[in-house]
Specification:
434 Repressor (Amino-terminal Domain), 100 residues, mainly alpha, two-stranded antiparallel ribbon
Length: 100
């Protein structure tokens, strides 16, 4: 599950735009926009672009984009990813027996 998008929620609040108004502006359902804001759905690349254009900002100003464990937009790596990397590196460091 995604985290709540407080940046988007704050941007909407500061501009006096409702989630329903945003939904109409980008051609999506109000329920879908609500799920994005609440963190119950991850926006598609297209959704991120449409929302950012509607609000006149860059997508990176509102959304963190993660790709294969690497984060863009100065995000931190989550604990699960770090644990996974640590477990992998621990396994890789175990000496292997040489085949005879």
């Amino acid at each position: 599950m995604a985290k709540r998008n407080l940046k988007l929620k704050l941007e909407l609040f500061n501009r006096g735009i409702t989630q329903a108004g945003l939904a109409r502006g980008i051609g999506r359902s109000a329920a879908h926009v609500c799920r994005i804001v609440r963190g119950l759905a991850r926006p598609t690349t297209r959704d991120r672009k449409l929302i950012a254009e509607f609000l006149g900002v860059e997508p990176a100003d509102l959304f963190h984009v993660h790709r294969r464990g690497k984060a863009e937009s100065n995000t931190t790596t989550d604990d699960a990813t770090l644990a996974s990397r640590q477990n992998t590196s621990a396994v890789d460091s175990i000496p292997q027996e040489k085949a005879k």
